[in-house]
Amino acid sequence: MILAHSADKLGMRVLLVHDQCETESVAGRLIRKLKTQLEQDDMEVLSAGSSFDAAMLVVADPLIQAVLLDWDLEDAGSHGPAAVVLDAVRRRNAEVPVFLFTDRENAAQIPLDVLRRTNDFIWLFEDTAAFIAGRVRAAVHSYRENLLPPMFDALARFARVHEYSWHTPGHTGGTAFLKSPVGRAFFDYFGENLFRSDLSISVGELGSLLDHSGPIGESEKYTARVFGAHRTYHVTNGSSTSNRVIMTASVTRGQVALCDRNAHKSVEHAITMSGAVPTYMMPTRNQYGIIGPILPENLTPQAIRASIRANPLVKDGMDAAPVHAIVTNSTYDGLCYNVRRVEELLGQSVDRLHFDEAWYGYARFNPLYEDRYAMHGDPSEHTDDKPSVFATQSTHKLLAALSQASMIHVRDGRNPIEHNRFNEAFMMHASTSPQYAIIASNDVSAAMMDGPGGETLTGESIREAVAFRRLIARLNADYAEQGEWFVNVWQPDVVADESGRKVPFWQADPARLAVDPACWTLKPGESWHGFGKVEEGYCMLDPIKVSVTTPGVGADGLREWGIPASVLTSYLDRFGIVVEKTTDFTILFLFSLGITKGKWGTLVDTLLRFKKDYDANTPLAESLPALASAYPRRYRGMGLKDLCTDMFHTMKNLQTTRLLSAAFSILSRPDMSPAEAYENLVRGRIERLGLDVMAGRTVATGVVPYPPGIPLLMPGENAGPADGPLLGYLKALEAFDAKFPGFTHDTHGVENEDGRYVVACLTR
């Protein structure tokens, strides 16, 4: 029994909910006697005398392993208070045992729905305290025995055995670290359990990640059920590896793959490794530079055929039929497709659809996202005449798992890749020495989402995001009434209420915002999203991905003044607030499962503090002391407002925002495939060129500005003319970086050599 054995780590904890606990009534004395008996039986007892206190404890303490609930709580004849507590318990946990205090006469009147959600009765006036405590203890033991999911359970059991190890890893349960002072410090920092669970593939009891056997295989089957897949594979090197596994299993040299141009760098790697011939599907982009959806008209069979015909890499005599398509869902900024619609459109052109859902693993567990994720609906209804569907999810990004934890989900349909064939690609990318803790964290992540807990946890994140969004929108409106500026949030300006009347977002019903997808879907032609006449219901903004906008952007370009988002990001970082992504005028915040009111409350306070320092033009030595100290000559004598003004006018003169949109709105000409470019790179047929001599040259590696983190140029593509948008954008970034040290851009594929951008190009 894993948990019972580790009582010091996870003791038995019981919640006793009864309003007679402190009274001198007969019931009160018996309750206190029962509490004493439970404590003598090694159970910690939390007491609550009201439904409010009990519900708060249920939310705050997931270690509660049994609930003893008075059906007549607060003397309510309707039993409403007890029902409130029971609802709070079952919203979070379908399995924890619940006992009802009642008598035999009242028990006959308890509704069937309540009986189905409880486990047993307590006859306080009939049974002894020792007998009742024994039944509670037995229920707690049973609950604990079945709490852990398959892989984590097996790992914990094995680590507890304390075997002598004659296999790898060489630290043998951590003992090697104990032989050195620095090793001991390392051991003490992480704790013994980490090292005892860091095991070798030689440990047969845990099964194998490579042949999906034993507890690992059972965990993958369990996870597939939870996430709605036919098959699931645990991956221990992130969704970058997951994407490469799928594409190398599905596409090979000379075959056409349809690729969302808004794709992660790992897709570039997968195309290169597989030898696929990419034909790109172009997404939209708005005035902020936020990447929008691929519009439906670009996914029709006619549009796909036209894109393939226009692709110089599809040579005469090649089979032009695409064999694979990959779409990013949701986008980095939180735009989610109606996947049924995407399947309907793309499924007419290709048999295998691949959704990169690295940032979107939670979608199945909240009805707000219905039909907007790859594994939508009932997997048994995914029949052989539908496309085969793959999804990659970075479990660690927005669920609860360790870094590098990822999953591949598969639903077989047309032209499936059966397991044995798919596993050959899986083994090419997997390690024979996987980190078992990462696999176990996938297992635990699935268990946390299983049952009612998934909707409860995701619902909490959504409600916190809604509260933050409404507050920022209200503050923006309040300041605007006073003729002042404040940050805003990229979201609908108005929302239709249930009567159809449009109200400002901050006045909308928060309960409805948290559950109604109609509040978040992009409507055709609405100015706030900037993606034009997008099809009704086709795309939705995910409320938990919050893009805060800074002043400076209008519908037709930059305004007369503005505040670059990078300055605000630096200011937030000074106060320990690390953001997910910063563009010219947006900052992305992720409201993951770990969000709390205190966390986003601190963010709001810091945003208000930034406004105060900006308006006062507080010296950089006070507002951004690290920047002022690192570059004293550049920023001497400047205030926060001075810096923002200087940077904004530089961006306006360099046209960075306009050039970004222009550069990412075109497809550069491919001179060769990414695989061919990589072969030339390996052979050393490259030279490093500055931007001033790159016109017309073929790049050897991808050029990927972060953000947005999608390729500006793919390997083998042409940089275009000297005055074209591609080189124009890079030159603008180069000039900006030279003027503002401490705010330089991160562009993969570009080396900054003493202020000069250099890119590897193929020799002529």
Automatic annotation (TrEMBL):
Gene3D superfamilies, per database record: 3.40.50.2300, Aspartate Aminotransferase, domain 1, Orn/Lys/Arg decarboxylase, C-terminal domain, Type I PLP-dependent aspartate aminotransferase-like (Major domain)
UniProt-listed GO biological process terms: L-arginine catabolic process
Keyword annotations from UniProtKB, A to Z: Decarboxylase, Lyase, Pyridoxal phosphate
Domain Orn/Lys/Arg decarboxylases family 1 pyridoxal-P attachment site: 392-406
Cited CDD domains: Orn_deC_like (cd00615)
Top-level division of the source organism's lineage: Bacteria
Protein name: Orn/Lys/Arg decarboxylases family 1 pyridoxal-P attachment site domain-containing protein
InterPro entries linked: OKR_de-COase_N, Orn/lys/arg_de-COase, Orn/Lys/Arg_deCO2ase_major_dom, Prn/Lys/Arg_de-COase_C, Prn/Lys/Arg_de-COase_C_sf, PyrdxlP-dep_Trfase, PyrdxlP-dep_Trfase_major, PyrdxlP-dep_Trfase_small
Lineage: Bacteria, Pseudomonadati, Thermodesulfobacteriota, Desulfovibrionia, Desulfovibrionales
UniProt-listed PANTHER family: BIODEGRADATIVE ARGININE DECARBOXYLASE, CONSTITUTIVE ORNITHINE DECARBOXYLASE
Xref: Pfam families: OKR_DC_1, OKR_DC_1_C, OKR_DC_1_N
Chain positions found as N6-(pyridoxal phosphate)lysine: 397
